[in-house]
Specification:
Radius of gyration: 18 Å
Largest sheet: 6 strands, antiparallel
Shape: globular
Structural class: alpha+beta
Helix content: 25-40%
Order of helices and strands: HEEEEHHEEHHHHHH
Strand content: 15-25%
């Protein structure tokens, strides 16, 4: 939701989310504009993430692409066959079923490549880091200073309000933010507090 308010044009966003990717699936993505990306698909099968850090040694490795198809459970077929994700061009892939207690990683059979840097630590970190990390990211990527408390409000899924939206981006109206929120599945407030 933060990127949707900071960058109303979808093509310019670093992070995006579509709560209605398909009938029973939601999709999140990251695109940094330099050739690195990831896509995460959520569904009844659990969640799966495919990423590409294009400058890593393992990026685009055809053996790894084959291992994705052979190591991931067939219940992830919609993820495995999604053309938009470019499953033949990746550097890391993880999945987690609804009963799994942790994420599983697709492992390259060559130990040298399997243990090499794949970009996942760098590009997935912001998904689990605190709001202050996103504040630093915004300063770096968008070259903006936005209030940490506004970021924390979004992290806490506080409903959108005129005040919250304008503190993030005074050029975006509450109506515009609500439109993006509907696509994202983010809660919308009823008051302009």
């Amino acid at each position: 939701m933060l990127d949707a308010v900071l960058c109303p044009e979808w093509d310019g966003r670093y992070y995006s989310f579509d709560a209605n990717w398909s009938e029973n699936e939601s999709m999140g993505s990251m695109r940094n504009g330099s050739g690195d990306d990831w896509f995460i698909l959520f569904g009844e099968f659990g969640a799966a993430i495919k990423g590409l850090a294009h400058e890593t040694k393992i990026a685009g490795d055809k053996v790894l692409a084959g291992e994705v198809q052979s190591q991931m459970p067939k219940t992830f077929s919609s993820f495995l066959t999604e053309a938009a994700f470019g499953m033949d061009w990746l550097s890391y892939c993880y999945w987690r079923g609804p009963e799994d207690s942790s994420w599983k990683r697709v492992v390259h059979p060559d130990p040298t490549l399997s243990l090499s840097e794949d970009g996942s630590a760098e590009y997935l970190a912001l998904l689990v880091e605190p709001a202050a990390s996103y504040e630093e990211f915004v300063k770096w990527y968008y070259e903006l200073d936005i209030p940490l408390d506004a970021i924390e409000s979004i992290y806490n899924h506080s409903p959108l309000s005129e005040r919250l939206v304008s503190s993030l981006n005074p050029e975006v109206s509450l109506a515009q933010a609500k439109e993006a929120a509907a696509e994202i599945g983010y809660p919308v407030g009823h008051a302009d507090a």
